Amino acid sequence: MHKSGFVNIIGNPNVGKSTLMNALVGERLSIITSKAQTTRHRILGIVNGDDFQIVFSDTPGILKPSYKLQESMMKFVEGAVSDADVVLYVTDTVEQSDRANDTLEKIRRSGLPTLLVINKIDLTTPEKLDALVDKWHEILPDATIVPVSARERFNLEGLFNLILERLPEGEPFYDKDTLTDKNLRFFASEIIREKILRNYDKEIPYSCEIAIDSYKEEPTIDRIAATIYVLRDSQKGILIGHKGERLKKIGCLAREDMEEFLGKKVYLELFVKVNENWRDNERQLKRFGYELE
């Protein structure tokens, strides 16, 4: 008997969804920072065993959209409820938000096998955790509640086994050697975006998008050219820094991560351009790989 299915990871920002996804897959596929809206796309991570294939799907954090980019991000979330075989709804021990109410209602109505994952339990007490479990039993009475710490890798094996139990029978969706549905261009752009998220404050990370202009694979080196788009000239100046020093730092950090990810040398060129309306421009958003319909 072979099992195969989509396990979609849903939740509010900053609850550790991407950390959990990477820990379950065993690879760093989703970028992780302390900033909200780190994940913009739906990213698949595929785990194969002798008699199973789990297709994990990390979605953007739930939010109330303010522009077309965020509308697209929420479409990934809505799709994750409709096409899942198993839902992982992730919360944590400190979250206080009602922005997920509509999504929780869709999960309740769906009848899908649901695991309510309480992450970051290393940051709370047993008494507070018991109270959280009781609260979530009332909100999602049909869900199985699983306390974990993705960062400390506590109870991940237990969670994994619960997922396996709920997978439907079926043949693999992807070849056994496939790790993700994304290509190298996507991961190159995400690595650059992660370095911007980690090294700039305020509006800069949320005003940036990355386009890979060229990606040439050679036997011993990959040559990559990328453009960072920002909304305003002032942001371009901040991003580049005095005599280009800040952009040079971003390029160096990104190159090092790319080399580790690819297992080979990388030559990386970065450019910065202003595109005043890219977050609300449908043509530009489609170019960056966002769904708008």
From TrEMBL:
Compartments where found: Cytoplasm; Cell membrane
PROSITE patterns in the record: G_ERA (PS51713), KH_TYPE_2 (PS50823)
Membrane topology: Peripheral membrane protein
Span list, region G2: 37-41
rRNA processing in keyword set: no
Region G5, annotated ranges: 148-150
Gene Ontology molecular function: GTP binding; GTPase activity; ribosomal small subunit binding; small ribosomal subunit rRNA binding
List of residues binding GTP: 11-18, 58-62, 119-122
InterPro entries membership: G_ERA_dom, GTP-bd, GTPase_Era-like, KH_dom-like_a/b, KH_dom_type_2, KH_sf_prok-type, P-loop_NTPase, Small_GTP-bd
Keywords linked to the UniProt accession: Cell membrane, Cytoplasm, GTP-binding, Membrane, Nucleotide-binding, Ribosome biogenesis, RNA-binding, rRNA-binding
Transmembrane segments: none
GO CC annotation terms, alphabetical: cytosol; plasma membrane
Pfam families from the UniProt entry: KH_2 (PF07650), MMR_HSR1 (PF01926)
Domain annotation KH type-2: ranges: 192-276
Domain spans labelled Era-type G: 3-169
Gene Ontology biological process terms in this record: ribosomal small subunit assembly
Span list, region G4: 119-122
Region of interest called G1, as start-end residue ranges on this chain: 11-18
Origin: domain of life: Bacteria
Region (G3): 58-61
Keyword Membrane belongs to the record: yes
NCBIfam families to which the protein is assigned, alphabetical: era, PRK00089.1, small_GTP
Function: An essential GTPase that binds both GDP and GTP, with rapid nucleotide exchange. Plays a role in 16S rRNA processing and 30S ribosomal subunit biogenesis and possibly also in cell cycle regulation and energy metabolism.
Family to which the UniProt record says this protein belongs: Belongs to the TRAFAC class TrmE-Era-EngA-EngB-Septin-like GTPase superfamily. Era GTPase family.
Complex formation: Monomer.
Protein name: GTPase Era
Species this chain originates from: Candidatus Alistipes avicola
Native organism taxonomy: Bacteria, Pseudomonadati, Bacteroidota, Bacteroidia, Bacteroidales
This protein's encoding gene: era
